[in-house]
Every structure is written in structure tokens, then in C-alpha cells.
Amino acid sequence: MKFFLEVNPLKKRNFFDDPEFSLQAFKNALRIAATRQMGLLMVTQAYTGFVMSFYVLAFPTSVGSTNALPDPKSLVGIAGLMIGTGEVSGAIGWGLVNRWAKLWGRGIVIISSTFCHLAAFILLFLSIPDDAPFGKNTSAPTYIAPTETLVCITGILIGIGDSGFNTQIMGILGQLYPDDSTPAFALYKFSQSFTAAVGFFYSSVLTLPWQILIQTSTLLLGSASYLLVEYRLIDADTTYERI
């Protein structure tokens, strides 16, 4: 009976009223951050921050600055709506995928999300002028003509991929750190917020090709890091429920 009633002593104490508890929580976060698994996952988490800054600022700004698009200013709102549509449909879709793809684990979702984002970045590189992120109307030449359809497809792909990364990160953190979920998720939000701030800083300074290069590089690194953690667990015969 005592086993079932026993509560983690840290959970009995108030974060704001007990400085010792705050210090212990901080130490727990540092301890988790020093593990190899969290170190790899923080690379993936960092990518979610970079891509967040991209679809929140750089992508809509670029769409609104492209003169070749019909009524580009109104397309900014539509682009945001398409990202949201992709996020919702992606969250539902990835949940269904995980139900029948347990053999491959969460890696199949990460790989699919990676391809979604790669496709979106390629479409943007080909159809949006290089100087579009600067926020000034531009008629610079592009490899292919920008259209409303391409903008919508790109937005949906970004949303689907983003939901895939975020849901799988939360899933694997919950399984790896069931007793330290608070510091684990705090590290997740810290990594994401830090790189998002960096992304917001350079989004109006760098041309679109350079921004896409950063996105693509961190995307591939983040995907590889996640897959290393995921399949290392499987290879080590560590069992956990797929989400």
C-alpha cells in the first residue's frame, strides 16, 4: 500500500515558494541535457524553432512581397490558413499512421515530415524571388512562375511537416523521461524558443536562398539526430508504446 501512495517528494513542494525545489529542478534539467539522448533530440528541437520563425515571418513576408502573385497581400492570410490546415490535418494523419506503422516506430513520421519540408523549401526556392523576405515589393525573376496554388501547397506542406516533428518530439520525450517530464519539456521549449529568436533576427536580413539553406541544413541534422535516438532504442530492445 505504501508503494502506491508514495509520491515523488519534488511534486509535494511548490516551485515558487521553495528555492531549494527550484534549484533541484534546474539541476535536473542540466542533468537531462547532459545525456546523449537529449543532446541529440535538442538538435531536432532546435530545428522546430528555426522553421517556426520561417513560417511565422519569412514565408508570409515573402508571399506578400512577390508582385508576380495575384493580390499578394491577401495571399498572406491564405498562406497562414493553409499552414494551420496542414497542422491540424497532419496531427490527425500522423496519429493514424502511428497506429499501423508500429513496426517502423516514430521514425516513419519524421522521415515523411522531412520530405514534406524539403518539398516546401524547393517550391519556395523555385517560385519566390530571392529578395522577397526584405518586405519590399519585388519583381525579381524566379525559376518558375509563382501562383496561388503553389503558395497554398507550400503552406500545407509546412504545416503537415511541422505537426509531425512536434508530435513525435513530445511523444519520445514522454517515453524517455516519464519521471522527469517537466525539465525535459522545459529543455524542449528552451531549444525551440532560442532558435526561433535567432531565426526572427536573421529573417529580414538574409536573402531567401540563404534562409532556405539554413532550414534545409538544420532539417537534415535534426531528422538524423531523431532517427539515431529512435532506432538506437529499438536496436537496444527497449520497448515503449508508439504514440
UniProtKB/TrEMBL annotation:
Record's InterPro entries?
A: Ion_channel_UNC-93, MFS_trans_sf, UNC-93-like_regulator
Q: Where are the transmembrane segments?
A: 40-63, 75-96, 108-128, 140-161, 182-202, 208-229
Q: What is the membrane topology listed in the Swiss-Prot or TrEMBL record?
A: Multi-pass membrane protein
User: Can you cite an annotated GO cellular component?
Assistant: membrane
Pfam families reported in the protein's UniProt record: UNC-93 (PF05978)
What superkingdom heads the lineage?
Answer: Eukaryota
Q: Which keywords does this chain's UniProt record carry?
A: Glycoprotein, Membrane, Transmembrane, Transmembrane helix
**UniProt-annotated location(s):** Membrane
So what family is this one in? Belongs to the unc-93 family.
The protein in question is named: UNC93-like protein MFSD11
Q: Please spell out the taxonomic lineage of the organism that makes this protein.
A: Eukaryota, Metazoa, Chordata, Tunicata, Appendicularia
